[in-house]
Amino acid sequence: MIVVDTGNHIAALAAKMAKPHVIAAYPITPQTTVVERLAQYVESGELNSEFIRVESEHSAMTACIGAAAVGARTFTATSSHGLLLMHEMLHWAALARLPIVMVNVNRAIGPGWNIWSDLNDSMAQRDTGWIQFYASSNQEIFDNVIQAYKIGEDERIRLPVMICYDGFILSHTSMPVEVPKQEEIDDFLNEYKSTWQLDINNPITHGNIVPPEPYLEIRYSMEKAMKEAKKVIEEVGEEFGRKFGREYRLVEEYRCDDADYVIVTMSALAAEAKIAVDRLRDKGNRIGLIKLRTYRPFPHEYLKYDKMIVIDRAFSPGLGGIIYSEMEMDGKEVYGFIAGLGGVDINYKDIEKMYEYAKKGKDGWYGIEVK
Predict the structure, then answer these.
(1) Across the strands, what pairs with 174?
(2) Which position among 66, 76, 130, 340 has the lowest Cβ density within 10 Å, counted as fewest Cβ atoms?
(3) How far is CA 86 from the centre of its chain?
């Protein structure tokens, strides 16, 4: 069926259809309506799940860790400073190899208080060991949440997964979304079976003191799982395509075959970049787009074009645009633009201007250094 609803309600619907055993909930703008809608599902009896109202985002992640450690499928959602408050427990979830699924509605970091979108909140968590997906439509929000469970729970991976999308741009915007039947989702998602769990009848030690050598091995196993995740993400994306008609990979390549320049960006900016690419093509420019669906694991193997224009909606102070800084240059001609921080509107016309600047050898902070 086709459902027309906001990105937040679509995320809640996807979570409901994945049938988590435990949901940990704490409100924060612009995420709040995700957990509100899930509370309605639980209260009405549409979802048989334990709904835990916690006192902070740190507690929300702690509750998910505890639930996942006893074998429960879990879900939570947050945004911005709430995600930052979780930071300690994000590391715990990943190193404990617990496939928690979380939605993060991207919002700028204060001070001052800013409720509009940029990607610094989630990209600042890049070293915690979470798989990160970025959606540029409400359909992708739904599809990514469903796939996240299958990917994270795969025995080769066992890592938590974060699905990110822009605050207000998607979270509060209604779009039509194709939603499969519940039995089709049930058939796609296997019943969750944990590879380890806390059990009073079969006690084990977890989270105790770890000597240096075993700790090094634990860290290395997480890195191997993240590398293996590239293959699993594409396997699951292909299976999803066979079942539901929408295939997914680590990235989406758009009109890249004969491109002289390729734009690299993610999230809502990628949807706007498609319009810019089509308009520039109509004017005779050979340009394409790589939309990063995954940020962790980082898809270096797809970023192989000789001339690339990277548009970052997040930056690392003293280093620059985060995606740009992680690119493997290898003699490639790469131009980096930082744009749209704090919710500054960037539309297809701005992206066309960035293309013109790049052709002249210019890049930097769009609207400040280049304007």
Answers:
(1) 6
(2) 66
(3) 16
pLDDT digits (tens, 9 = 90+) for 184-205: 999 999 889 888 889 999 998 8
Q: Domain 2-244 classified CATH 3.40.50.970?
A: yes
Residue located via tokens 């240096």: 212
Order across the sheet with 131-134: list the strands: 50-53, 22-25, 74-78, 101-106, 161-166, 131-134, 294-296
- The tens digit of pLDDT for each residue in 237-257 reads 999 999 999 999 999 999 999
According to DSSP, the residues that pair with 24 across neighbouring strands are 52, 76
3-state secondary structure of 293: coil
CB of 190 closer than 8 Å to CB of 155: no
192: DSSP letter: P
CA 350/CA 356 separation, integer angstroms: 10
Q: Where are the domains of the chain?
A: 2-244, 251-365
Q: What is the 3-state secondary structure (H, E, C) of 237-266?
A: HHHHHHHHCCCCCCEEEECCCCCCEEEEEE
- Give Cα 80 distance to the centre of its chain: 13
Average the pLDDT over 109-129 and give the result: 97
| Interatomic CA distance for residues 269 and 151, integer angstroms | 25
Distances in whole angstroms, Cα of residue 96 to Cα of each of 26, 194, 195, 356: 23, 12, 11, 47
**Token representation of residue 33:** 């309506």
Asked if the 251-365 domain carries CATH number 3.40.109.10, the reply is no
Are 93 and 160 contacting, i.e. CB atoms less than 8 angstroms apart? yes
β-pairing, 287-292 vs 251-254, is: antiparallel
